[in-house]
Amino acid sequence: MAIVRGWFIFLLGLITFILVGINAQGLRLANRQRAAFSFFTHKHFDVILVQETHWTNDIWRDIELDWGGEVVNNGRIATTVITITRRHLI
């Protein structure tokens, strides 16, 4: 199952990073989270904008620990776009 609809490489001066936008259609289950995080890491994505995660406050801390990088939301858990950055990018 492909969860990536498209990816883009941006060149800003000497800084190159890969920005990806994904409609995850639910990443609440641990096995889907692990599969997505493994895929993001394997593809070396730097910034991932994930919508439709269905994450809630009760699992938020576990998600941050599992990813190990930066995970930011817009303040509305479960109906939001989540921004995930690669470890040590920021």
Q: Can you walk me through this structure?
A:
The protein has 90 residues and is an alpha+beta fold. The chain has a single domain, classed as 2-Layer Sandwich (Translation Initiation Factor IF3), CATH 3.30.110. 27% of the residues lie in helices and 32% in strands. The chain is built from two helices and five strands. The protein has helices spanning 30-42, 57-67, and strands spanning 6-12, 15-23, 47-51, 70-72, 81-85. A five-stranded mixed beta sheet has the order 1-2-3-5-4, with helices on one face. The longest helix has 13 residues, at 30-42. The radius of gyration is 13 Å and the shape is globular. The relative contact order is 0.20. Mean pLDDT is 76; it is low at 1-7.
Summarize the structure.
This protein is an alpha+beta fold and 90 residues long. The protein contains two helices and five strands, in the order E-E-H-E-H-E-E. The longest helix has 13 residues, at 30-42.
